[in-house]
Structures are given as C-alpha cells and as structure tokens.
Automatic annotation (TrEMBL):
Family: Belongs to the binding-protein-dependent transport system permease family. HisMQ subfamily.
Stored NCBIfam families: HEQRo_perm_3TM
Keywords: Amino-acid transport, Cell membrane, Membrane, Transmembrane, Transmembrane helix, Transport
GO CC, alphabetical: ATP-binding cassette (ABC) transporter complex
Keyword presence, Transport: yes
Subcellular locations according to the entry: Cell inner membrane; Cell membrane
Domain ABC transmembrane type-1 span(s) in chain numbering: 19-210
GO terms classed as biological process: amino acid transport
Transmembrane segments: 20-44, 56-76, 82-101, 148-167, 187-209
UniProt-recorded Gene Ontology molecular function terms: transmembrane transporter activity
Main location: membrane
Protein name, entry field: Amino acid ABC transporter permease
Species annotation: Nitrospirillum viridazoti CBAmc
Length: 235
C-alpha cells in the first residue's frame, strides 16, 4: 500500500487539535516544573529540615514510574474526595515530576558558584532574599538552563502517557484516527513529526533563554565557578 498522507485530510483538524492540546499541557507543565525545580533546588542545598524534605521529595518522585503518578492523581485522589480533570492532572503530573528531576540540575548550578561571589554580595549589604534573587539564581541558571532543557524535552515525550487518562492529546487522537482509517503508517508518521516539532520548539526556547542569560551575565561581569559549597554558608 503506497504512502499517502492525503488519507489524513478528513482527520487533520482532529489531529491538529490533539497536537495543540499536547502543546498546552506541556507548556503549563514546564512552567510548573521550572518553578518547582528552582524552589526545590534552593531548599535542597540547605542543611535544615527544609533541605531534607526537598531531597526526600526528589527521591520519591524520581523513583516512582510516571504512569503510576498519573494514575494516582487521576484515579486515586477521587477516592479521598479530590477530583482533578484530565487536563489539569496532566499539567500537575508533569510539573511535579519535572520539578523533581530539574531540582538536581538547579542545585548543581547553585553549588558551582564561586564562594567569593556570595561573600561579595553580603559585604555590599544585600539582604539574603536579594542575594538569592539577584546573584545566586541568575548565575546558577546560566549553568543549569541547558540541562533543564533536556528535562523539559523529556516531559514533552512523557506527555504521551496522558492519553491513558482519557485526555485527547496527540497520541490518543492519533491512535483513534489509526483505528478508524486503517492507515497506521501515515497516522504515526504525523505523530512522529508532531513530537519532533514540539521538542524542537522547546529546544529553540532553551537556546534563546541561554543566550539571554549569557548576555545578561556578560554585561554584569559575573561567571559561575567550579567551587562547591556556596549555599552551605548562606542557607
């Protein structure tokens, strides 16, 4: 049977709607993952109870299969009176697991900052919060942003699991079209292209952010070093 993409024409609106829904859930999940990863990374470098809780959270979410986390949120929580629809379950699940994986990247970026940078900020009279916001995070993210991009790309790929909780994202939509048209080759070729496009868009965004952070750091004359243990003195 010859390859013929025209068989998808009657279903193109459905497939594009699924791709758009995947893009939406992934975009919101990535925002949540980035926010959570930053917070957990900052907490995890500390030695107190907050740091221990942050590291425990990371250990738990990194050692439980993503599909189990999704099923727990969608099918388990209603048993205790918590109901979340499929879309927001997907956003929450991606944000929670992405935050766990991303926190180690942020933490590594923080630990790589030269101690003298933080000491100089203290001497200048900046408050603890100002040091974190204006010194630590900008420098740490310059180091961490590319590895974080890999985490976010993996979130896009993991989003295919969300079709298992009735979310009409692109994988679930493609599966339905394939069963209706009996043309799985063309349908899944579209699916391959859709995920390639989504992950490429994430990569482009990370590259743009990396250039912006590098330009900002160059203008301020700061650069991350390789000495560990910075936040141990500031936590």
């Amino acid at each position: 049977m010859p390859f013929d993409l025209t068989v998808l024409t009657p279903h193109l609106d459905t497939l594009l709607a699924g791709a758009l829904l995947t893009a939406e859930v992934c975009a919101l999940g990535i925002v949540g993952a980035f926010t959570l990863a930053t917070a957990l990374g900052l907490l995890a470098v500390g030695r107190g109870w907050a740091g221990r809780l942050a590291r425990l959270y990371v250990d738990v979410f990194r050692n439980v299969p993503f599909v189990v986390q999704v099923f727990f949120l969608f099918y388990g929580l209603p048993e205790v009176g918590v109901y979340i629809d499929a879309f927001w379950t997907g956003v929450l699940a991606l944000g929670l697991v992405g935050g766990a994986y991303g926190s180690d990247v942020v933490r590594s970026g923080i630990l790589a900052i030269e101690p003298g940078v933080v000491e100089a900020a203290k001497v200048s009279g900046l408050s603890r919060l100002a040091i974190i916001r204006r010194v630590v995070l900008p420098i740490a993210l310059r180091t961490a942003i590319r590895p974080l991009g890999s985490v976010f790309v993996n979130l896009v790929l993991s989003s295919s699991i969300l079709s298992m909780i009735t979310l009409d994202e692109v994988t679930g939509t493609a599966r339905g079209v394939a069963s209706e048209t009996y043309r799985p080759f063309e349908v899944y070729a579209f699916l391959l292209a859709a995920y390639a496009g989504l992950t490429y868009a994430v990569s482009l965004g990370i590259d743009a952010l990396h250039r912006r952070l590098n330009r900002h750091m160059a203008e301020n004359g700061a650069a991350p070093g390789a000495t560990h243990g910075v936040m141990g003195r500031t936590a």
